[in-house]
UniProtKB/TrEMBL annotation:
Keywords: Hydrolase, Metal-binding, Plasmid, Protease, Serine protease
Name recorded for this polypeptide: Peptidase S8/S53 domain-containing protein
Family listed: Belongs to the peptidase S8 family.
Ranges where the Peptidase S8/S53 domain occurs: 120-351
Active site: 127 (charge relay system), 164 (charge relay system), 317 (charge relay system)
The keyword Protease is assigned to this record: yes
Length: 382
């Protein structure tokens, strides 16, 4: 739900702030709403309400027996490693379709040759939006939604005014044609879920709303190339609800070069993705830790950019869509989120990094699909 709902209480000059309030009953929800200057989100599936309250009323907010928790609605921001600006926009892609190195490295091109393109799969890109008119994406874009406003003129509220979401989307599902680039799952349907603005920022509740939306829509996979060190109850409950309902969540481990995986990639219900370079070494910026599940190409990643352009970006944000696209290829076979996760990890390639760096290894879309074919063959044999 975009925008405010509920109370119309007048706001005075006193400072206000947003809080996510978990409640046990309708009485607890009513208590939060009664105190609020404004209600921003209602998460009925989670029994959480995002409210804006005055500083003087904050102490009263949690003063009810049916309130489970009160936590600040934290602002989240993209945190990408520095990229050489001279490499960002590529001018020489018009003559032919380029095959980005990461797409080939994870076996996606081999999968395409066998007719595996992710047709019928639905992928939510929970990010800054997608360029709705991009020549290499628009044919694959389905229904979108925005939880933050776009700053550009467009017929679509979810239009990308930052570039990050468009780049991520190209790696997942750029169309296989005669120009531009090709994605891991070039026939999958992309659903833009805009939760980050033109500065790459959005609140914890905005992101949770995006996760719940993708879950309610019944999408197969959701890409979360966003993360922060801080864990919150609101987003954790959204992630767990999504997993229970069958959505596969794939998230970036973070770009600080620290031995600490960002949230929500550190949750058990999420596939956490670290990043490697072209020589299979760990990318210098990639966060690591025991919560890493898979690794994927994350340096010098060529993909789509707004305005029918193509460019290079780096980060675990760019590694994550390689795994998301691979998951989409498997989802086309009707597999559950847990089955896809198991196949991706079991078929991953050991590239010689430690388990905290690579998890089960480098994602290998073609190898995972070979395992699916074996399973399907056994089922037919019975």
């Amino acid at each position: 739900m975009l925008g405010s709902i509920g109370t119309t209480a007048a706001q005075d000059a006193e400072t206000t702030a947003q809080y996510n309030v978990g409640h046990e009953t309708e009485a607890g929800r009513a208590h939060a709403r009664d105190i609020a200057v404004e209600v921003h989100h209602e998460f009925e599936a989670l029994d959480i309400t995002t409210v804006e309250v005055t500083e003087s009323d904050l102490s009263v907010l949690g003063d009810h027996e049916d309130i489970r928790f009160v936590e600040e609605n934290i602002e989240r921001s993209l945190d990408l490693p520095d990229t050489d600006p001279d490499n960002q926009i590529q001018e020489d892609l018009e003559a032919e379709q380029w095959k980005p190195w990461g797409i080939e490295r994870i076996g996606a091109l081999a999968a395409h040759e066998r007719g595996e393109t992710g047709c019928g799969t639905h992928v939510a890109v929970i990010d800054t939006g997608i360029d709705p008119t991009h020549e290499d994406l628009h044919a694959n874009i389905g229904e979108g939604v925005a939880f933050v406003e776009t700053t550009i003129e467009s017929d679509e509220a979810w239009a990308d005014d930052d570039g990050h979401g468009t780049h991520v989307s190209g790696t997942i599902a750029a169309v296989d044609n005669d120009f531009g680039v090709v994605g891991v799952s070039p026939s999958a349907t992309l659903h833009p879920v805009k939760v980050l603005d033109n500065q790459g920022t959005g609140t914890d509740a905005d992101i949770a709303a995006g996760i719940i939306h993708a879950t309610r829509k019944g999408y197969d996979v959701a890409n979360l190339s966003v993360g922060e060190p801080e864990t919150t109850q609101t987003q954790t409950e959204a992630v767990r609800f999504a997993h229970e309902e069958g959505l596969l969540l794939v998230a970036a481990t973070g770009n600080d070069g620290h031995p600490h995986v960002d949230y929500p990639a550190d949750l058990d219900e999420v596939i956490g993705v670290s990043a490697i370079a072209k020589d299979d070494s760990l990318a210098s910026f990639s966060n690591t830790g025991p919560e890493v599940n898979l690794t994927a190409p994350g340096t010098l990643v060529l993909s789509t950019m707004p305005g029918n352009q193509y460019g290079v970006m780096e980060g675990t944000s760019m590694a994550t869509p390689h795994v998301t696209g691979s998951a989409a290829l498997l989802a086309a076979h009707g597999l559950s989120n847990d089955e896809i996760r198991e196949l991706l990890t079991a078929s991953a390639e050991n590239i010689g990094l430690g388990p905290d760096q690579q998890g089960s290894g480098l994602v290998n879309a073609n190898a995972a699909l070979e395992e699916v074919e074996k399973l399907e063959g056994k089922a037919l044999a019975k």
